[in-house]
Queue: 4 jobs
Job 1
Amino acid sequence: MNTVFVVCIIIVIVVLLLAVITTSKAYSYKHTVDPLENNPNANGNQEEGSGDQKHT
């Protein structure tokens, strides 16, 4: 009975340790953003307000 209890505690500690390590790596990841000059949708020529485009 004591052996099962000790094994369960070890498993809980290992899972908790892995969760902490994974979360720490996730928060330390640096995201990158594409520059605006490469984005065709950010040209500033679109009229603000309505998102509709008029076709002529």
Job 2
Amino acid sequence: MPTHLLTRCRHRPRPALSLMDGIALEQGRTHEACGPARHSFALWLAAAAQAPRPGPVLWLSPARGGRQPNPDGLAGEASPIRFLFVRAARTEDQLWAMEEALRSGAAALVVAELSEPPAMTPVRRLHLAAAAGGRFGPAPLGLLLTPGQGGAQGVESRWHLAPAHAFPVHAYPAQGLRTGDGATAPRSCWTLQRLRARTLPPRSWQVTQAAAGSPLRAAPPCPAARDPAPPAQGLPRSLAGALPRPQEALAAPAPP
């Protein structure tokens, strides 16, 4: 359960960047995304940041081992001309460039693709830089892309995104749609988990997108994802339990 310290200062909630209905990330802070589809999470944020604050997106990647996104693939989520890609020889150089970019406030979103989670001190510096970047307008947002299940210390929130494209949400009667009713199946489907947040508990969503560039829709995971019971009447048995179970390690809050 989250705890709150009593102070004499008046609490004012920070502005948040809305990713989809019910999911938002605080601006002026640094967040973390992990999982096999973490790059898609960064693209979603880039598209969401365009509405409140049009501006460039700075993408920092290592000189070796980094995967620079293809502009043709970016076009389905965000305009490729907004992205500025920078390669750094060392992790320290990436974090320094990210800190300076956040402090300047010139970029609405700064993404750093790291080979391992950073320590507490660099993350705290990124928080201070992101807060300072909002002196003359909306505060920027920092995003760390880390492998595996992440683990950066001191981040505002940690998210895990994994693909689940073989799972047809529309086929379940509980979703209000039935098989054979002519409904269009979602083009893509993901399992999104909030592993850690300062003021919110861990939670899971099933995110779907009907077509490239269309709005993202989040819903609670289908019961088949938690308990692969026999399929409902009228549902092909081959589709039962297609969404993988949330991993136990991801369901518990990660250490700060």
Job 3
Amino acid sequence: MALRHAVLAALLDGEFSGYELAKIFAVGVANFWYAAPQQLYAELTKLESDGLIAGREVVQQGRPSKRVFTVTEAGRGELAAFAGAPPKPLLMRADLMVRVHAIDVLGPIPVIAQLHEQAREAEAKLELFERMLAHLRGDLDEEMFLRRGDRIGPYLSGLAGCRFERMLRDWCLHAAQTPSNHVQDQDRVMSRGVV
């Protein structure tokens, strides 16, 4: 997947400025695609140049004008072609996983601190996703929303983000506890004179 597809998918929900799109990416899209605001602005320029989105100037009272974007028919066609293509395998690249993998040699103290920090970040993201899901559902429970809701795609991707952040938080807390337990067990064995 290219950034263009994530931007096109985000713009299906309406007309947004680059600033608004950056906020959408920070909450709703970040669980499957990260992009810095500068990358988003550059991609918007490319998408407009390629005719996949259309931009227009909006004059605001007492504030600078802003440019907002919508998906064109060509953009919808690009998304349809992307949706019909075979998916690439899911990949995970995370510095923290490399540190955990090497914890036996690096020592647990710095890695445990990073695991706790990652757990706090996952908890904060989980809360954001849960608020987003509640907002999307409105007065409906999840089952009813998934049967009758207008836009279940953002809900389902948000639900995946929610489940991922919950799993990550729980794994980080478990992983942070494991080296401490391991060291305590080794100390007990050593104190008994068993090697």
Job 4
Amino acid sequence: MRRILAGAVAVAALLSGPAHARQAQTPTSTLAQACEGKHGWNDPAPPAHLFGNVYYVGTCGITSLLVTSQQGHVLLDGAAGKAGPLIARNIQALGFKLGDVKTILNSHEHGDHAAGIAYLQRVTGATVLAREPAIATFERGHSDREDPQLLELPEFPPVAHVRAVADGETVKVGMLALTAHATPGHAPGGTSWSWRSCEGTRCLAFAYADSVSAISDKVYRFTEHPDYVAAFRTGLDTIAGLHCDVLLTPHPGASDLFERIAGRAPLVDAGACERYADTGRGNLDARLRAERDGTAP
């Protein structure tokens, strides 16, 4: 019996993250207060513990998440270029070592979420993973005409040695297991991620769902790219179908994260992914109508 109890305690510790890091937790209310009225990509934010082994380490305007284990950690997104050092300091402020970040994942290949990745790859030594449509953009540091927003996107520091991850593939680091879901539309390589996190015996399904806004530069027209629109709709269906107790998004405001961690809305909401997908469908339908009636490029 003692062995069984000891094993259960060990598993809980592995899922919840190292004890030294738990002692350094910043209350989520501190994060919400620090970012009140701030939305800038590089506005510094304190790190905060969200649940279990999941930590917010991004800025006030851009999400970056750290998912931890005793065997190594996973970082989701690197925010804008100046934010790379801010994210690194947040990881260290929580009590984690940069060298224990083993894998860096990405939501999509735009500079506001990818420009800090080259720096973070360099200081952690982590492997960077992305879906195939995003890899060439990472390696060049800029998009091509496949991206609806090409002419509006700034270049960012190229990322070397990006490994491809397939739709439906589960990325494992120790006991961590995060699954990739192809959700193109906002960008060709758009990817959402899902995993489970536990606090003791309570486990929640997390979804880091990619951006769903249908925007472009002044040249690109979605109505001229029916295959892309079809893939966009399929990705929205994928997000709607995710097992999703906690929704997180690349822009925290898109899922009202700071409102939720401040206690003004529930953090846990099983219907959030479906509603988020519905918002994306509304965005896409509105854009297509605007193109057809001439009020959009």
